[in-house]
Amino acid sequence: MATGATTLAAGTDSQQFCYDEQNRLTWAGSTGTPPCTGTPITPGSLTAAQYSTSYGYDAMNRLKATQLGSYTYGTGLPSSSPIHAATGAGSNGQGGPYYSASYDAVGNMVCRAPTSAPTCSGTVTGQQLTYDAERRLAHWQSSTSTPTSSADYLYDGQRAVWRGDARLAAGAVGPGGGTTPTPTTVYAPASDERVEGALSAVA
After folding, report:
1. Order of strands across the sheet that contains 150-156
2. How far from chain centre, in Å, is Cα 32?
3. What local confidence, expressed as pLDDT, does residue 168 receive?
4. Looking at residue 185, what is its pLDDT?
5. Hey, where are the domains in the chain?
6. 183 pLDDT exceeds 60?
7. Cβ atoms 43, 30 nearer than 8 A
């Protein structure tokens, strides 16, 4: 896709995109001058949506630069994170990354910090993720301690069949033990049906 134009009730938006010889996105924007054309874009009227971003890649085809800044990656398992797994991006202005993540010995992401306030290095305060024996996400929580939100997951084969807020209401019992905490999402077997809200029990 080289160009895109959108017309909404609130106004218009015009975007252009540039790619390298390997068909990787190198520039995207709705204002400024695309390096692949050398011709300034005529911006649309949605000024609040205007942007321009450049993208860079390293010799291993990993994304190395975006609007966040530069990216860092692991050096390989088992002594470090996977070589294609981002461990940091950008800068928090205090010598650390804006985005950070960490991984376990088999490459599962176990910590995720999508903003500069929490972190997955040093004193870990980022979101926590745990997995079952088949490396499927089993639990997520918003921080290492006193999380404000969390979720547990159960599966039928490879499909998630239960997702419930792990912060139980008073007197509630967790998965497999009685009342389902709310909010809850249940995917019915052999269908796309979804049931949301409180359920009386979990099988």
Report:
1. 56-57, 63-66, 69-73, 86-89, 99-103, 109-113, 127-131, 137-141, 150-156, 159-165, 184-187, 194-196
2. 28
3. 42
4. 56
5. 1-54
6. no
7. yes
